[in-house]
Design goal:
Length: about 210
């Protein structure tokens, strides 16, 4: 069952050639610094960026401390968002961590133009055997995953061993963690990493 209506926050031109649905991670809302910068940068470049919050995160706005909804609820919420945007062939979906994972499970079903994930949770930290990759091998949707090389949810070495669809490309942010943030000793700043991540994201969205 599709959730009837989900409030949307839109940045960028309403007549954009491509709209990008950017879903939040499990523990952070839609207005974290990364989410805000992504919406501003991509929106200013001509992409309509659509943000929303899953029911449990929306409830936290009223003081609740609920954990993430079960996957069927998360998926129904995401379906509702995409249904509000018109032609799915002009929509790309994705998100940060959990938000990207939910989108990846729906991309082919919804017939969207592309899938863009920041920090995909290939497995829980310290549990490399609990893979969340089975559906990724069959993906037909054009996909870009932007991943930090120090991400405990999936390192470059681990990802190289996974059977990912030919439609999937992974771009690694050097020394980035799960939030794509590098260490100071790397010589790179958080701003540098974000600029790189959003640059490759914009190029991908323009290709669509």
């Amino acid at each position: 069952m599709v959730i009837a209506s989900v409030p949307l926050l839109r940045d960028g031109p309403s007549d954009a050639a491509v709209s990008f649905v950017l879903a939040h991670s499990a523990g952070s809302p839609m207005d974290t610094p990364f989410m805000l910068e992504a919406a501003h940068v991509l929106g200013a470049a001509g992409v309509q960026v659509v943000r929303f919050e899953f029911p449990y995160m929306h409830a936290r706005r009223s003081g609740g401390r609920r954990g993430p909804d079960r996957m069927p609820v998360l998926q129904d919420c995401y379906r509702s968002v995409v249904a509000q945007l018109g032609d799915p062939k002009r929509v790309a979906i994705g998100g940060r961590s959990m938000g990207g994972r939910v989108a990846s499970m729906l991309a082919d079903e919804l017939g969207v133009a592309g899938l863009l994930c920041f920090g995909y949770p290939f497995h829980p930290p310290d549990k490399p055997a609990q893979l969340r990759t089975a559906h990724l091998a069959e993906l037909r949707t054009k996909t870009l995953i932007v991943q930090g090389t120090r991400d405990p949810f999936g390192t470059p070495e681990e990802i190289a061993s996974y059977a990912l669809s030919p439609a999937t490309r992974v771009h690694f942010i050097d020394d980035g963690d799960h939030s794509l943030i590098p260490r100071k000793k790397s010589g790179r700043s958080e701003e540098d990493a974000r600029e790189e991540a959003l640059g490759v994201a914009l190029a991908f969205l323009r290709e669509l």
